[in-house]
Structures are given as structure tokens and as C-alpha cells.
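Entry 12.
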Amino acid sequence: MNGKTRALLVVGVVLWVLQVAALIVGTSWFYTVTRLESARRWGVYASAEQGMRDKIARGYQGIEKIEIVSAGTNSFDGSDPHVWYVMANVWAERRSDGGLVGGAGSDHDVPGSFFLHTRDGWVWMPEGAFPEVIGFWMKVFGLAGS
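Predicted 3D structure (C-alpha cells):
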């Protein structure tokens, strides 16, 4: 392989790597922005705890008592203060879908949910939407609240 062919190969590989990187960043930006916009339609809250109380109010009927058990950053080292997981105890007559509350000898449910802090406030993010991944990209793109 001569010098010119080797140089063209190196340039081709570098261009391919740059294209793949741009595709990853672009796709991540689009996914993050669209998921956050969808979450805003659910509601924007002053705190993650307030968001959890609203989610419970939508998901249960005949609520007798709500107790926030834990609310805080989902990262062990606190490096992602904009990604929180909130858990609560809920005593209610039934779930909004008709399901029974409690089970396995318990008289209450223990729901948990992710909430992300945006510049506008806290939004609920379903676990299946990969909230930790969205939180990573929020930090990269400057979309995380302070």
C-alpha cells in the first residue's frame, strides 16, 4: 500500500467515525428533546414530590393517605442531581384501573417513579423511556435544571 492510498484510507476512516458520532449525538438530542416535550404535557411541577402526589392522584381512587417515603437523586454519588427517584406509600380504596391496593399482606401500595429536573421544573419520566440516559444527555445539552 503506497502513501497516497494509506492517507485516503485514514481520511475515510476518520470521516466515517465523525459521521457515526454525529448520528449518535443527533439521535440522542432528538430523543431527549421529544421525550422531555412529551413529559411536559403530563405536567411540570415545582418539586419531584409534588409530581409524585399528582401522579398518585391520577392513579388511585378514594385516597386515604399519601406518604412520601424517599425522594432524591438516583445517582449514588449525587453526580446527576436532576434525575430523581421518588417512592411513596399510598392507602386508597382502589387503583384507577380497578386494581386492588396492597397485596401480599399489605394494606397499601408502594409506587415509585422517576422525575427529571428541567429548566422549567420537574417532569415525570416513565422508567421505560430510560430516564438515566435522558438525564445524561440533558446534562450534555444543557437542558437540566439547576
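Annotation: The beta strands are 60-73, 83-95, 112-117, 122-125. Residues 3-42 form the longest helix (40 residues).
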